[in-house]
Amino acid sequence: MKVIATNKRVHFEYFVLSTFTAGISLQGCEVKSVRTGHVSIADSFVSVKGGEAFVINMYIKNYEQANNFVPDERRARKLLLHKSEILEIGTALHQKGLTVVPTKVFLDRSFVKVEIAICRGKKLYDKRETIKRRDVERDIRREMKGLK
Fold first, then answer.
1. Nearest to 41 by CA among 58, 25, 54, 26
2. How far apart are CA 29 and CA 79, in angstroms?
3. Where are the alpha helices (DSSP H) in the chain?
4. I need a labelling partner for 61 at 20 to 30 A (CA). Which of 20, 25, 141, 147 fits?
5. Are the CB atoms for 113 and 105 separated by under 8 Å?
6. Residue whose C-alpha is closest to residue 76's, from 59, 89, 64
7. Other C-beta atoms within 10 Å of 27: how many?
8. What letters, b where the CB count within 10 A reaches 16 and e where it falls short, cover 106-124?
9. Could you tell me the pTM of the whole model?
């Protein structure tokens, strides 16, 4: 498993409740562009329409060596999930305060996969707590490194 892109803000902005691994339907030379690492999931989210799940606003740069067919860089891409997983995501999206965001894009053998998470947004005081905990852990690691 080779991780291509991660969304580092997810664990700071949200409480992650559950995660799913989904395949993604790509067109043309988008796979080659993903393999070279030209993908961003920073502002993307998941939506369910008509019994199908889509990742919206995921950026995949156009492949330079592509000739004729060049798809839109931020088009909606279909996620390949089981029906029960799509229903669970759909019910989570209808609940107040829950959202579904991609956390990472990776290669599993030769397939491009996306890990998505059902999340609940953090309040400002929760974010302060996360920053405080991270600073304390960093200071402890620094002190332990100095003792060796």
1. 58
2. 18
3. 10-13, 30-35, 83-94, 124-147
4. 20
5. yes
6. 59
7. 13
8. beeeeebbbbbbbbeebee
9. 0.83
In one-letter notation, the amino acid at residue 148 is K
Instruction: Give the CA-trace dihedral at 128, 130, 133, 139, to 10 degrees.
Output: -90
**CA–CA gap between residue 148 and residue 139 (Å, rounded):** 15
Q: Which domains does the chain have, with CATH numbers?
A: 2-122 (2.40.280.10)
List per-residue pLDDT tens for the chain, 148 residues long.
899 999 999 988 999 999 999 999 998 888 889 999 999 999 999 999 999 999 999 999 988 887 777 778 899 999 999 999 999 999 999 999 899 999 999 999 889 999 999 999 989 989 999 999 999 999 999 999 877 6
Residue type at 80 in one-letter notation = L
